[in-house]
Amino acid sequence: MTAATHPPSPDPRRILVTGGAGFVGSHVVDLLLAAGHEVVVLDSLVAHGEARPPWLPADAAVVVGDVRDPDAWRRAARGVDAVCHQAARVGLGLDFGDVRRYVDDNDTGTAAGLWALHEIGFRGRLVLASSMVVYGEGLYACGEHGDVRPAPRTGADLDAGRFDPPCPHCGRPLGWAAIDEGAVLDPRNVYAATKLHQEHLCSVFGREHGVPVTALRYHNVYGPRMPRDTPYAGVASIFTSAVERGEAPRVYEDGGQTRDFVHVVDVARANVAALTADEPVTGPLNVASGTPRTVLDMARSICAGTDLEPVVVGGGRLGDVRHVVASAARAERLLGFRAAEPFTPRTPAWT
Fold it and tell me: What is the mean pLDDT of each run of 10 residues along the chain (351 residues)?
């Protein structure tokens, strides 16, 4: 369901969307406005040259400010019935040298916001943009030892082409399955650690204030308004940027990494459902398409209709994981959410 066909809400609310000028946040804004809600956006606009991007509707109120600044949160959050916290530094990053940027933007920004919400006595609903990265590797099973948690892959493993993690007990090959929200969490890079900390901070705030908190664990999001020409984006954006430059996408490992690629409009629909459902859903929810695909599948789809072919380059990035695929059953059962958008990575990506 698109913004144009989203039904008006019988109970309009005033909702704050942090990062509302960005990739996912702007689509949430579109759907909320189409449903008749009043929307306040808190965004630094730094990613947009400090100018209001053309896709941000005129009827969205914008507070220009940094989420690390509690005063910006206070200005934006007064009188709101719900908060949708999208603003974050995303992606795997370049190396551990990015640690302070991730902690500053994600953890400090979230702490500043929660402190401001505490100060103004917020008692509404809080929806957090979390991520599948909190799981680390997905769910694996060994034929002899059952469900297992493989160890993190090493640089030597990747250099030698040992991409699939073996059973930690017997070394045999493992099969993967869809992971649900009850899995043991095991963040394996800096970004993942900050997303888990955001969940923890919001959960503590919710318990102490009686505020329902929903953590939406996005799987690999793609679609219009993806960030472009940046190493801090997901693979769909990185591949699309390459194709737009006339370059073949470079695929790490053997391309067999398995993911769930979910369209940004579906992700926005999940946010609106969590923000406006008659009864709030607390805790984590996977937001996914339910259809696993490989990274090479995505690269080939983005190249479709061009003269380009993906180039599989081997190697890999420490902190990346091999297979992580979601079970979206809890989101469907508790929130009524089911992904509906077709797999269309070659649609215009930036508009």
Answer: 44 91 97 97 93 94 97 97 96 85 97 98 97 94 93 92 95 93 93 97 98 97 88 84 94 96 97 96 97 95 94 91 94 96 74 56
Query: Which backbone phi and psi does 252 adopt, to 5 degrees?
Result: -75, 165
Q: What is the pTM for the complete model shown?
A: 0.93
Residue 193's alpha-carbon distances to 101, 151, 319, 324, in angstroms, are 13, 17, 11, 16
Cβ(76)–Cβ(60) below 8 Å = no
Predicted pLDDT at 22: 95
Residues counted in the chain: 351
- The b/e string for 86-120 (b: 16+ C-beta within 10 A; e otherwise) is bbbbbbbbeeeebeeebbebbbebbbbbbebbeee
In this prediction, residue 347 carries a pLDDT of 59
Q: Cα–Cα distances in Å, from 210 out to 126, 128, 193, 273, 282?
A: 11, 16, 25, 20, 11
Q: In a 3-state reduction of DSSP, which class is residue 244?
A: helix
Distance CA(138)–CA(136), nearest Å, equals 6
Which amino acid would we find at residue 264? V
Return the bridge partners of 18, or none.
42, 85
